């Protein structure tokens, strides 16, 4: 049990940081100096040539060292002490024989793995930082934090100085290396540490705790009082009431002076330096009797307790165990569980209401963290709460928001783990320059038949969206969230690379109907005749809006026209709003025709042919505009709407008529070809048809041909049967009684003699026991022949009321009706809301994109 407790303590220390000024460990933020500053790498996508060099932060440069190889130098005036670089990036390797001089070992749950930065296309600039040859020349210290490797500036680094990392006691203790009682915890050249790595995997996991020295000395020679010797002696602690307890104290500590009024048990190990008369010389510095370190003292025992927890864990456990304040006095420390021990040792700092409100504001409005440094924001907070002090951006990002992220991610992982079927949507968006991101969102229908959407990670992707890069990104995300096996469909861009990548992961690709409709409308607007007509009308609109007389006259036709003309000038021809603008223009055609009679400039005058073109465009765009508005009813419209809408566009609203003009027929033909091509894939049509077959509004499948209808019902039977076979026994549904079912025919009792003679040769089948396939057929037949629902009814609400009547089909409905028709919320596609969201995302710094987009997308879980 003690070994388990030691391992729990090691895991706890993995969550702690170290203050170079206080010489104390802390969680998230130093009580005296605040949160540390993390120097972030320049964001560069993975697998980019020379990624390590490109990731170099501003103020650093890589160049050749006089002794050979490369190193990193500081080019800014100064790097403050305590700044943290990292994390160290590279390939994860498990075999110690694969380690190189670019490898660091990481301890996790009692075992080890290695981060190797040999490949400069996967690593960061930290691979070029050289190791110090001696303790005196180092200015960086390596340490492990939250399962990753970082470098911390152990002293001020002026400009022109090479960064040199040092492996000291902190990292050695993290790895559990036993280097001898009097071994100084420092290493020079990296090759020396490489030899120590060879011992890590050879140790049994359960013996790791034995390699942690319980009496490791705090090696800060300038902080050790001169009267104290390097060796230790056993000193009986009779003053705490347990004469049997023996703690190793430094010789000479009996001369230290304690406070006369001190009552805390922590004073057992601390005292002040006194003069010959026993008077305290300096009450601001207190000395540890175990290691001789001087600590700041401000009138309370906080620093004393922290020092014992992080530097003398065993003595602390024995102390609080014998006192009974933290551990029951009748229970030994070995009998305390590791989790209980860890939870008692550290209490997470509380976040004030105002600080939490600031964090919520950033998350909900998707604001860059730099906004809190704005003059207006600071002034507003000063008015609302004059005594409030804003936290540093680094503390907000790496402590508060990171804690919020972890809390939500734990909920999401637990939820996703229990999903049996879900779908995923792929949102590709451009951040800045050549940096693009892929944001993943999963979709499912819960047991209450409510549609749910959960945003997962946002990952940087190459701008060209190559199949290999995209496949790698999707596989990593699927592994991280555990969604590869329970995800069946992926909705995204209708590009070949996206189709291949999603298929490689095992997901069936489906096109985003919003992107398809956008392509159709842009096909109309890109026609040269329409473009020239719109250009002339734009000039006419500019003329009208620049003349006070015309503006006054235009106002007599109502305010709507004025608003639409200003939108036309400001926004141009946005595909999702152009129909409304053109319809308004055509409705007021008489006003514009009368106006053109007074204008002499021929290039801004619209002729009758131009008005005919505009009327044709309005007639063509009308069904497309209605289609887009149909999908905006829900946040994510269901896939079952796609096939009926596309079919009605192809064969009714956009089908050529005998009264169409030649121009109109040409445009309709182009749209027809585009739509037919986008939905020509047979597999895609099968999924669309299945979704329609489970939608009570379209259950009759009247818009399908007879062969397609037969195929769809057959596939539906297979889908429902397969899902039923995968279902656990406790969820197996009883066959429902079909609607309008006739009373069962009474079975004629067989002659007992026949049964006696032939019963063993011919198995007697009970016709009342239906197989899963038969049950599926019965449910489909009953569902198909029942009355269709209203087109305005929500299909999931219908299933919520009828799922017990069709248990097998209900399971299939939860799977197929969860598939979204679009890759992003529909209002992002068909309104200006999407522009606002992507504008906010692009304003985020690259290192905070995943964090803030995730929290914003799942803000209801906070």
From TrEMBL:
Residue ranges of domain SET in the record: 58-168
One matching Pfam family: zf-BED
Top-level taxonomic group: Eukaryota
This protein's GO CC annotations: nucleus
Keyword DNA-binding: yes
Main location: nucleus
Keyword terms: DNA-binding, Metal-binding, Nucleus, Zinc, Zinc-finger
Domain BED-type: 261-319
Molecular function via GO: DNA binding; protein dimerization activity; zinc ion binding
Signal peptide positions (record): none
InterPro entries recorded: HATC_C_dom, RNaseH-like_sf, SET_dom, SET_dom_sf, Vacuolar_transposase_reg, Znf_BED, Znf_C2H2_sf
PROSITE patterns: SET, ZF_BED
Subcellular location: Nucleus
Name under which the protein is recorded: N-lysine methyltransferase KMT5A
Species the sequence originates in: Xenopus tropicalis (Western clawed frog)
